[in-house]
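Listing S7. Sequence submitted for prediction.
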Amino acid sequence: MADIFANVGEDPRDIFTSSVFALLMSGSVRISEVLALPEDCEVSDVDKHGQPVYGLRFYSGKGYGGNVKWVPDVMAPVVQEAIKRIRSLTEEGRSLGTWLEKNPDMIFIHPDSIHRDRSKSLSEIEACEALGFELSTDQAKQRMYHLYGFKRGDLITLDSLWDKLKNRVPDGFPWINEKAGVRYSNGLFSMQSNILHAQRSTVRVLPWLPDANIVNNDLSPRESLGEGRHSSIFARYGFSHRDGSPMHITTHQMRHMIDTMGHRGGMSEEEIARFAGLADSKQNRVYNHISDKEIAERYEKAIIDAGYEKALLIHCEPVGRDAYDLAPKGPIHRTVWGYCVHDFATSPCGLHRDCTNCEEHLCEKRNQTKSELEIKLADIEENLEASEQAMKDGHYGADRWYEHHKLSAARLRELITIHEDESVPDGSLIRLRQAHAPSHSSRALAARGDLVNNALQDDSMARISKLMEEM
């Protein structure tokens, strides 16, 4: 895309797509925010060190509101050039928007039109010229009588032509984003109908605004349209993968990539959320694609840099004999809530350290534990509400998260109730039984249908035995 941006021709589609891509690379922005930029979106200032900085004035979605996003210095010249190209491409579109805001019942006369008398009779070809394109006689008649609804013998003038076309003005005009105060008259991407179409001529009197689909469709092959019907910007400039397969990307992938770069670069969660226009820093998790291996390597490096030898990274915590005797079997492990009695030498943790939902965990009653449980319950209830809404919205897999959070909330409330019970001495160890503890065997049994109804009443070994008998 950098190569295409540097060598772009005069095709409006190429200018548009490559410039939008550059703006998406300027920071963690949504495509909807880019396409709703005002024409005067550029901001210049100095930082706390007196160095010049350059940013764009966005209106971020999902409740964040107005936001100046400062462009990294390395991208500033590219973004400035992209803004300049788009501004030039859409200058007439803003003039059209300004005219129609003030004169909604009068056709816009574009700068190249020689037809300026609004009541003068026009031929079919002259009417098309007034709209901004040249057609043959047959094509012009087809457009006037079949597309626009004139009848043979009707008087065609600029006024009567606009009467046929004004219902094609986009819904919501003159607003592009009313909350942000962006109209077609001051929108950076205010365009005219068909300006980006590969075959159709631009209708210079009708306003139009591109959406995310326009961008994504030009960044991907559309094989469903048939051979030769569509080519992406990569194909038009001769780019493909090494095996010859077509290249494609989506506008949202840049947002994920840049947020991940922010995490790799050491930005705080608050900084990343503000940079991305997110109202809650917890939403950063969706965009963070740092792998577990990267996190482990970073932690290991930090420990070594702090003066520890690599061989000393293993941490062993001794356990008193009294605590050990409380465990029904095997070794025990200290947790934030109490003690885990799972034997990790036999198998890894089946609940991914979801201790409060595990029957192999002993919760120790103490004030600090109660406070931690209350904090976790507040988080779980927030997630429970979100998963319930996601389930109502039809998101795949939301029902499983809802059931999980529902169980977790119930168990946490029970634990907190026990902590508040004065008859239970401090230091007591609490075990909550779980009738249907997740395990590989129970999942396998669940796939066997009716076998589960009988098998779940037995212990784990009995369940496994029944499964083995069926195989």
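Caption to Listing S7: primary sequence and predicted structure tokens for the chain studied. The first helix runs from residue 2 to 6. The CA atoms of residues 118 and 159 lie 6 Å apart.
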